Amino acid sequence: MAYIEFKDVKKIYRMGEVDIEALSGVDFEIEKGEFVVIAGASGAGKSTILNILGGMDNATSGEIIVDGNKISDYGARQLTTYRRYDIGFVFQFYNLVQNLTVVENVELATQICKNPLNIEDTVRAVGLGERMHNFPAQLSGGEQQRVAIARALAKNPKLLLCDEPTGALDYNTGKSILKLLQDTCREQGMTVIIITHNLALTDMGDRIIKVKSGKILSMEKNDNPLPIERIEW
Amino acid sequence: MNELLEKLIPNVLDYSERFFTSCTQTLQMFAIAGIFTFLFGMLFGVVLTVTKRGGIRENRVIYYIVEIFTNVFRSIPFIILLIFLIPFTRALVGTAIGVKGAVVPLIFGAVPFFTRQVETALANVDDGKIEAARSMGSGTFGLIFRIYLHEAVPELVRVTTITAISLIGLTTMAGAVGAGGIGSFAINYGQNLNHQDIVNVCVVILLVFVCVLQTLGNFFSKKTTNRELITRRKEL
Ligand SMILES: Nc1ncnc2c1ncn2[C@@H]1O[C@H](COP(=O)(O)OP(=O)(O)O)[C@@H](O)[C@H]1O
Ligand SMILES: [Mg+2]
Predict the structure, then answer these.
(1) What is the value of ipTM here, to two decimals?
(2) In chain B, which residues have their Cβ closer than 8 Å to the Cβ of A85?
(3) Largest Cα–Cα distance in chain A?
(4) Of the given ranges (A103-117, A208-222, B44-58), which has the lowest mean pLDDT?
């Protein structure tokens, strides 16, 4: 059995009278420690997949297994616990709390989890050792995204889920963030999943999942993932 | 000094004891009604935010109960509310007059106002932050206390100040129907006995109250506003 499995997962959003089928039967699997890229056009259902995998939302039907646990059977309370201990999320917009410093923002996440990493080490690891006591508004977009990554990593999660993490960043800053994520995966053996609508980025992944109109278009293993430095877009 | 006062406000001096009792009564009404208003308004404001459509704990029934209560009591002019609530007040605290009798309608008058203000303050909290905190595994109470209330503190201080000031106004209005306090004093001894100096002094006292509240509010609001912005301003 794979580390993560999606089996015929469907998600229907009810908008008043109309039903929107965001996922119409999605199957894929991911192995532990992989650097995964989920790519597809805007509206394809990528965020929906990630939100369901991260326990932010329930699937309408289908089976989701993570590390031997059947997430799809979880209720609201179990999902909260699952998010708390097993999942680290990074969003396109960094969503830091404005009146807390870098360190305090990371603390906000670690306060409620079981085996957090050392906060200051984590902040240093994302390259912000000098900025620990700055407030978000004093940091650039790339630096704020680093804080968000530190916040997710410090929880020591099983999975790091990133929804368009470079969507709001310029080319070079985006690259440095992707490099940080790839390095984290390689050095800590963490399973990292990245969503992007940029197909040029797929070469960096160990596994590439392409999504189209709520379905999986293709899933391939890539034995020679490119280091970020060699990717151009 | 005394001579000057004797000249300027002769009648206030004549009724000085009454005057001081009135001030105390107003402060009492303000304090008691204020505390309850703060607690209930905060509670209802949070409940509305959390249970609304798309809220973190959506619940139509609870939302509509609080919503209707808030709307109904907010639509009734306070002076009518005072009369309307007399039987209820009497049943609840045994009397409809004096400080005790006034506190009940004051709470009913101020809570809906404050609830709306709190709701607006919390609505300004960025959804992305709620989403991020939810993704970290914060539960409902975690989201309320660690994100909503935390992020909204400066705004909450501001709306608390506004409500406190309007509560002073309500307190004096209650004086018209036997609540006592500065409102009663101004009407009974100032207007009815035709002592303009009494009315004038009441106005000054109320102005002082309001100024003190506003100054306190500004102070705390500044203290709690995004620290990073203040730091940045200092750097510039
Ligand atoms: N909360 C929601 N309510 C209704 N429809 C939604 C909701 N979230 C997403 N959708 C719809 O589901 C589809 C997939 O959305 P999403 O997963 O966000 O796509 P992507 O992340 O690939 O751009 C879109 O058609 C979108 O409009
Ligand atoms: Mg998306």
Answers:
(1) 0.84
(2) 137
(3) 53
(4) A103-117
Q: Which CATH superfamily hosts domain A4-230?
A: P-loop containing nucleotide triphosphate hydrolases (3.40.50.300)
**Residue-wise pLDDT tens digits, A41-95:** 999 999 999 999 999 999 999 999 999 999 999 999 999 999 999 999 999 998 8
| Burial degree of B20 (CB within 10 A; 0-12, 13-18, 19+) | exposed
Of B94, B86, B223, B110, nearest to B163 (Cα)?
Answer: B110
Question: A with B: how many residue pairs have Cβ under 8 Å apart?
Answer: 72
Task: For residue range A142-198, list pLDDT tens digits in order.
Answer: 999 999 999 999 999 999 999 999 988 888 889 989 999 999 999 999 999 999 999
Of A85, A96, A137, which is closest to B137 when you measure between CB atoms? A85
- Which amino acid would we find at residue B92? L
Cβ–Cβ < 8 Å for A175, A228: yes
Q: Is B136 on the interface with A (CB under 8 A)?
A: yes
Cβ < 5 A residues, ion ligand 2: A 47
Of B150, B151, B229, the CB nearest to A137: B229
| CATH homologous superfamily, domain B16-235 | MetI-like (1.10.3720.10)
Q: How far is residue B25's CA from residue B176's CA, in Å, rounded to a whole number? A: 14
Q: What is the 3-state secondary structure (H, E, C) of A36-86?
A: EEEEECCCCCHHHHHHHHCCCCCCCEEEEEECCEEHHHCCHHHHHHHHHHH
Q: Where are the domains of chain A?
A: 4-230
* Proximal ligand: closest to the CA of A211: 1
Q: Pick the residue from chain B with its C-alpha nearest to A53.
A: B135
